[in-house]
Every structure is written in structure tokens, then in C-alpha cells.
Specification:
It is a multi-pass membrane protein. One of its GO terms (biological process) is transmembrane transport. It holds the Pfam family BPD_transp_1. This is Sugar ABC transporter permease. It is found in: Cell membrane. The chain is mainly alpha-helical. The chain folds into 2 domains: 53 residues; 236 residues, MetI-like (MetI-like fold, Orthogonal Bundle), CATH 1.10.3720. It is built from 14 helices and 2 strands. Strands 1-2 form a two-stranded antiparallel ribbon. β1 and β2 form a beta hairpin. α1 runs antiparallel to α14 and α4 crosses α8. The termini are far apart.
Length: 316
């Protein structure tokens, strides 16, 4: 047969094979599309309960608080729309600035918890006999409730029979003095917060690859340079969590203040969270209390967004 005839005869066969291949590819794409849709529907079904819970218990209360802050309401009578009057009154309240100042003091001193927790975690991250018992002793304050911690430190500070009197030699009215009350409560709050940060760092320290540490030592790093350039970069997730949760804990501090001083003496130890509770429960000013809650929420939101942007920028 002539070569030209042979090429012409093979051309239809090749085109038929290509059409069959295109048909198989089209059928595979058609079967893939329903599978992708089913997977997407399954993912949404799994996410739906969490989204509903988040909407009901997070988004709805936030929106309700913002709306309520625009009203004057005592919880029983009809709501009266007052616009931004609650915020204007808040800005002219002396107690608000005292509470805001105390929140700043809480924030600054509470940030001592992550570095101290890191130091304890580095000390406890050793394979020494009996270290598990030592870890449990260090961690035990974290499992106590805030009420128990408040009562323990109230007895510790008591100027008539407390251990502080035994150590110092004379009674000091820590919780009864405007100058010392806030610092005494913060010291009590740091007692369980430091073990919490320590646990976060311990969890991440156990996940560090020992070969990275060994490589740093082979390069001549040791002590502080090894910690700063090799260990701490591996602990960024723990640092982020401990700082963010510590700041949130400082801004929403309430239970220890309620147990130890009740915001006193003369509102000197109150913070925004307790000021909000005080206005709602004692004076039935729910709109004014909601305005305080919105201000506190905005402060937390600004800090959390700032920390998230820093973390995302560092990961690029």
C-alpha cells in the first residue's frame, strides 16, 4: 500500500482514539463534580453545629450588648432609647478612669506570667528522677478555682493572723489600703496564671526536635544565644497563646476582686469587668453596664487583632 494511503487510513483511527480519550476525561470530570459537591456538603454539615453555637453564644450576645448600650433599662420597665448617652456618661465618670487605670496595671504586671512560666518550664523540662512530682506541685495552683485562691490570699494578707504578718513581723492591711489593694490582688492572680503559661511552654518544649538543639550546640551556641536564636523561635505558638490569654485574663479579671475586696476600698481596686457587674447587679443599670462591656470588648479586640497581625507577619 502507498505510504500516503497508510497515513490517511491511520488518521481516522487516531482521531477516534483522541475522541474516546476526551470522552473518558469528560466522564471523569462529570463524576468528580458530584463527588466534590458531596464533600462540600458534608463539610458544611460538620461545621453547621459549631457555627450555630458560635452564632448563638458569641455573635448574638455581642450584637445584643451593643444594641442594649444604646438604651436606658432597669431590667423590668420599658427600654428607653438614649443613643450615645451611656457612653458620654461613662467618659465623664471618675470610676471609669480608675477602673481603666487598674486594668492597665493588671495588664502590665500580668505580662510577667509568660516569661516566669517559660523560666519554670525550662527548669522542669529535665529528665531527672522525681521531676513529675515537682511538676505537679508547680501546676497545682492552676487547678484551684478563683474563689479558693481569693480566700487563701485573703487569709495570707490578714493583718491579725495572716502568714504575711509572720514573715514581715507586723500586720499590713494590704486589702484595706487603697495603695496596695490592686497589687495584692494581682499577686494572688499571678499564682495560678504562671503555672498555666508554664504548661503551655512545657507542651511545646517536648515537641522540639532535639537535633535542632544539637545542631545549635555544634555551631557553638550555648546558654542565652541558644535560647534566643534556637529555642524561642520554636516556641512562637506557645508565646502567642500565653500572651493573648494572659492579656484577656488581665482585662476580664473579676472573681478575685469580687472575693477579696469587692472593688474597694472606695472603688480603688475596681476594674472594668467588676464595674460592669456593679452597675448591672447593684444599680440595675443594664444599658450603662452594656456600654462598659462594649468598651471592654473593643479594647480586647484591638489587642487580639494586633497580635494576630504580628503573628501572621512573622510567619511570612
Amino acid at each position: 500500500m502507498h505510504p500516503l494511503q497508510t497515513a490517511q487510513s491511520t488518521r481516522p483511527a487516531a482521531s477516534a482514539g483522541a475522541q474516546q480519550e476526551r470522552g473518558r476525561a469528560a466522564s471523569r470530570s462529570h463524576t468528580r463534580a458530584p463527588l466534590a459537591r458531596r464533600r462540600m456538603r458534608a463539610a458544611w454539615f460538620f461545621l453547621l453545629p459549631a457555627c450555630l453555637m458560635f452564632g448563638i453564644y458569641v455573635i448574638y450576645p455581642i450584637v445584643s450588648s451593643i444594641v442594649l448600650s444604646l438604651y436606658n433599662w432597669d431590667g423590668m420597665s420599658e427600654k428607653t432609647f438614649v443613643g450615645l448617652a451611656n457612653y458620654v456618661e461613662l467618659l465623664h465618670s471618675e470610676t471609669f478612669y480608675v477602673a481603666l487605670r487598674n486594668n492597665v496595671i493588671w495588664l502590665v504586671l500580668f505580662l510577667l506570667a509568660p516569661p516566669i512560666g517559660l523560666a519554670f518550664a525550662l527548669y522542669l523540662n529535665q529528665s531527672v528522677r522525681g521531676m513529675r512530682l515537682v511538676k505537679s506541685l508547680f501546676f497545682s495552683p492552676f487547678v484551684l478555682s478563683g474563689v479558693v485562691v481569693g480566700l487563701v490570699f485573703s487569709w495570707f494578707y490578714d493583718p491579725s493572723f495572716g502568714l504575711l504578718k509572720v514573715f514581715v513581723g507586723h500586720g499590713i492591711p494590704v486589702l484595706g489600703d487603697e495603695r496596695y489593694a490592686t497589687f495584692g490582688i494581682i499577686a494572688a492572680a499571678l499564682w495560678p496564671q504562671i503555672p498555666f503559661c508554664m504548661l503551655l511552654y512545657l507542651t511545646n518544649l517536648t515537641g522540639i526536635n532535639p537535633e535542632i538543639i544539637e545542631a545549635g550546640r555544634m555551631e557553638g551556641a550555648g546558654g542565652w544565644p541558644l535560647l534566643w536564636h534556637v529555642v524561642l523561635p520554636q516556641l512562637k505558638p506557645a508565646t502567642f497563646l500565653s500572651v493573648v490569654l494572659t492579656v484577656i485574663g488581665a482585662l476580664r479579671s473579676f472573681d478575685l476582686i469580687a472575693v477579696m475586696t469587692g472593688g474597694g476600698p472606695f472603688d480603688s481596686s475596681t476594674v472594668l469587668a467588676y464595674f460592669m457587674y456593679d452597675q448591672a447587679i447593684k444599680y440595675f443599670r443594664f444599658g450603662y453596664s452594656a456600654a462598659i462591656a462594649v468598651v471592654l470588648f473593643l479594647i480586647m479586640l484591638v489587642f487580639i487583632v494586633y497580635q494576630l497581625r504580628r503573628l501572621l507577619h512573622a510567619d511570612r
